[in-house]
Structure formats: structure tokens, C-alpha cells
């Protein structure tokens, strides 16, 4: 079946590239021409296609999201009600809502049609390490 | 044809879960393995996959978006030009741009491969009640 | 093969509608019922479905994103590290992360199932003109 699942072990907040793992999975599926869908089965991490050349880009992305959605023990976040799972939890849901849980990528002759600088990232929004499930589904077309 | 449409009646701003309605539609379509695309035909509401356990999560999501994009009669929004449809209208377009009009969800044996806490939501950004059209398209794969 | 590529020449920051070009490409592909995926192969522009009736809507969208992510030579952006490509570059990556690199649109009898007010836009986040590559992939279903 043209589907693969794998897990990404995260070490707390940050962006974790998995472009190579996705390319390997496509190859394992025998994909030719079609559409790859990448989906993450969580509500406190998300998916992103972003520049993978200068590591400062993902560092700055993380910093921006931290500034726009600070931890809920920050003075500016007194309005947050969902606090039972820690000060990083509700901000994680918000950051996930601002980004994406799925990516759709055209595939040509078994290769994702990514631009030169595009890489696939899991964006972990929780402080503690997590094991995140990724589903890759290929549809021929 | 592996497509269904339904409407969601909203009662003003907020998140409206339709996970069960989507699952029923999948079943009606006789879906097995493949990809479900959910699409909304509007520019002032959007779609979200988010936690459906604690109702405070969707309440906080709504509050965050209200704070980052206040109504256009708020003092901080004096720069807004598109005002003819009311102070909730341009913020609705902005909130829609910050979230998503479509969701892509792998389907296994007729079931969406959602994580334990993931639910599908329509995010209504207008104050007045609206009838929102949802298109579900299933592609076998 | 049910895929088309074209380029959009942008003249700096702003939203560029390409609904008609996408409709023409669908027609050239002989598309009937199925799913259209639109993908852009860049990390400093993005894709958006938004209202194409009042031009103030896209002007206000651009203004909102400029205010929430100012150029990195703005006093509020002193934390940005990725500066080698100019003050518009890191904000461009952030704005791309806040919007989308792909759109998924159900197609009925060769026509995108867009709502009355929905148009497809390339959102250019760089100051200088760019030639942006768009991939359209149609899957019958």
C-alpha cells in the first residue's frame, strides 16, 4: 500500500528536518508520478516547508513564534484558560493552528518537486522530548 | 462520485467541530484507503484540526486570534480600509489567511487517520450566524 | 501527464491573482472530476485563497502581515539573525510559514469548486521582482 509511517524523536521546541526520511519513504513505496501528502497526528506540533540552507532561518522562525505566542506564564498571556498541561501547552496548540498539520507535494518520477532551498520540517512546540508520528500517503496520478 | 457536500450552521465567531459528520460522509462514500480533502468555499471562515478534549483549547484559540486581529473598530486597527461589511469582516479575512481553507487527511480502511486528540473544526470568523459549505473529496490510493 | 507548471512574474511585495491561469491549466490538462493541488517551489512567497471582489482586502492583508512581521531593520526586529539577504528576507520566510505553500481544491467537471468570492493568489514577500514557479497537479477521483 502506498503509505508509510515513521516517528520523529524531538528534543523539545525547535524545527527538525526530515526531507531525507520522506524521500527514502517515497522510494520504498515505489512512487513514480503523483502527489505526496504528509500528515502529523498531533495538535501540539506541526509541519513546515522552509529554507534548509542557513540554520539561522529555522532558529529565527522558532524565535518569532515564541515572541508572538509566549509561554502562558508570561505576563501577557494571563487570559489563557487551558493550563493543566504546563505553560508550553496552550501556546503549542496556537502555534500548530498558525502553521499546518498536512503538506501536499507533487512528485515527479519518484522525487518530490521541492525548490532548491525547500526542506520538510517537523515543528515541535512542546518543551519536553516527544515521539511524533508522521504519515506519508502517495497517490499516483 | 466520491464527493459529499454539507453545510454547517454557525452561530457567530467560534470553533464548530464536525469530525463525526466527516466520518459519516466518508462512510456514505464507501471510502477505503486513500486521501480525504476537506475544503470550505468561503473567505471569512476557515478549517482547523485541533484538540477536542478540553473545551478551553478552542476557547483559547478563539481568544488568541481575537487578540492578534481585533475588530477593525479597535484603536489599533485604524489602518484597515475594507470596512463596508462591518468591523468583523476584514479581521475575518486575515484570520482565514492565518489558518487554512483545506485539510488533507490520510484514510485507512474508511477511517481518517487522526491522532487521539485531533478533531476537525470549522472556525467561524464572522459575528452573525452563517451557513458554511464544506466539500469532502475522497481519492482512493 | 496531468501536471502543468507556469511562472508568475512579481513586482515586489503584494498579492498576485492567478485564478484564471489555474483554470486555463486545468482545461489544458483535460481535467474532469478530482483534486487540484497547487504548489509553489519557494520559501519566501506563499499561496492564499482569498476574496477577489474588493481590492482593499488584499491591500489590507499585505498591510497586516507587514505589521505583524516588520522588516528586520525595524527596531522591534533586533533579534533576527538571518540578515545576509536584506531586511525583507527573514520576514519573508516568516510570512510564508504563517500562510501556505500548497492549496488543495476539489474539481467538478473541470472547474475548481471555488466559492463566489474565492480567488487564488501568489503572496510575494520579497521587495524585488521575482519569477515564481507554480506547479499544478491534477488527480482524477
TrEMBL record, chains A, B, C:
PANTHER family: UNCHARACTERIZED PROTEIN YJBQ-RELATED, UPF0047 PROTEIN C4A8.02C
Membrane-traversing stretches: none
Listed SUPFAM superfamilies: YjbQ-like
Identification of the protein by name: YjbQ family protein
Recorded superkingdom: Bacteria
Similarity field: Belongs to the UPF0047 family.
Family annotation (InterPro entries): UPF0047_YjbQ-like, YjbQ-like_sf
Lineage: Bacteria, Pseudomonadati, Pseudomonadota, Alphaproteobacteria, Hyphomicrobiales
Source organism of the structure: Notoacmeibacter ruber
Coiled coil: none
NCBIfam families linked to this entry: TIGR00149_YjbQ
Amino acid at each position: 500500500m502506498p503509505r508509510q509511517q515513521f516517528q520523529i524523536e524531538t528534543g523539545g521546541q525547535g524545527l527538525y528536518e526530515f526531507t531525507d526520511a520522506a524521500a527514502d519513504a517515497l522510494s520504498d513505496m515505489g512512487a513514480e508520478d503523483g502527489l505526496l501528502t504528509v500528515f502529523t497526528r498531533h495538535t501540539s506540533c506541526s509541519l513546515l516547508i522552509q529554507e534548509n540552507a542557513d540554520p539561522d532561518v529555522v532558529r529565527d522562525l522558532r524565535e518569532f513564534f515564541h515572541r508572538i505566542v509566549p509561554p502562558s506564564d508570561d505576563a501577557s498571556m494571563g487570559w489563557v484558560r487551558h493550563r493543566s498541561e504546563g505553560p508550553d501547552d496552550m501556546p503549542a496548540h496556537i502555534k500548530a493552528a498558525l502553521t499546518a498539520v498536512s503538506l501536499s507535494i507533487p512528485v515527479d518520477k519518484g522525487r518530490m518537486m521541492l525548490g532548491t532551498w525547500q526542506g520538510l520540517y517537523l515543528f515541535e512546540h512542546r518543551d519536553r522530548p516527544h515521539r511524533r508520528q508522521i504519515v506519508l500517503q502517495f497517490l499516483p496520478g
